[in-house]
Structure formats: C-alpha cells, structure tokens
TrEMBL record:
SUPFAM superfamilies on file: Winged helix' DNA-binding domain (SSF46785)
Keyword Lipoprotein: no
Pfam families: GntR (PF00392)
Location of the HTH gntR-type domain: 5-73
InterPro entries: Tscrpt_reg_HTH_GntR (IPR000524), WH-like_DNA-bd_sf (IPR036388), WH_DNA-bd_sf (IPR036390)
Alphabetical keyword list: DNA-binding, Transcription, Transcription regulation
UniProt lineage: Bacteria, Bacillati, Actinomycetota, Actinomycetes, Micrococcales
Organism: Arthrobacter halodurans
CDD domains per UniProt: WHTH_GntR
Name this polypeptide is given: GntR family transcriptional regulator
Length: 123
C-alpha cells in the first residue's frame, strides 16, 4: 500500500487493475468487503468504501445476498477512462513542452517512436 493515497482509493485501483489484467473478468464475483479487509489488514468500512466507489462508477454491481460482481463493459470503460487520464496527464504536457521547444508533431512522433523502439529492445 502507498501512504500517499487513501486506502479505499488504493483498493479500488487494485480491483480496477485486476479487471484490466483479466484476473476479474466481467460478470465474475469479486471478494467480499470482509475478505478484502482481512487480506489487506484494513478496516472493513475502508474496504467497503473502496467497493462502493466502484459500484458508483458502474464498474461493480451488487447482487443482494450474493455479493459484488464485475459489470458488463467494465473493462472497456476502465480502459477508456485510463486512456483519457493518460492523454491529459502525459500526452498533453508532452505536446505543450514540444511546442515550447519548437518540436513539430512529426519530429515529436519520430522521437516517441525512437524511444519506444529502444525500450522494446531492452525488454
């Protein structure tokens, strides 16, 4: 866990990550509030707050008396939201700085492609 973020947000992000990587496919049940609380050694109310956040976002839904399940379309919705966040937090500032430095879009694209190929070679 990361001290910089509230625990309930960290839990929600962990669940989102597991939905994105396929650990929790759509329409499958996720662990209960008490299971998350016990596993992560956090207060059940904190775990509940993280799950509620995902229910409110439409990522999870409740089946009364049964538990929480991953909603249909949750993965695509999460991918869309994360791509938008990525664009806003990383791409737009990159474009803005490139413009300040006189780097045109074609040059920037070439620089990104070059850096990506170097990164792929390291893997």
């Amino acid at each position: 866990m990361d001290d910089a973020k509230p625990l309930f947000i960290q839990l929600a992000e962990q669940i989102e990550g597991r939905i994105l990587d396929g650990t929790y496919p759509e329409e499958t049940q996720v662990p209960s509030t008490n299971e998350f609380a016990a596993f992560l050694r956090i207060n059940p109310a904190t775990a509940g707050k993280g799950l509620t956040r995902l229910v409110e976002a439409g990522v999870l839904y409740k089946r009364r008396g049964i538990g929480m399940f991953v909603a249909r379309g949750a993965r695509e919705g999460l991918l869309r939201a994360r791509r938008e966040t990525f664009r806003d937090q990383f791409i737009q500032p990159l474009i803005d700085e490139a413009a300040r430095l006189g780097i045109d879009p074609a040059q920037l694209a070439g620089m990104v492609a070059e850096a990506a190929s170097t990164t792929e070679e390291v893997r």
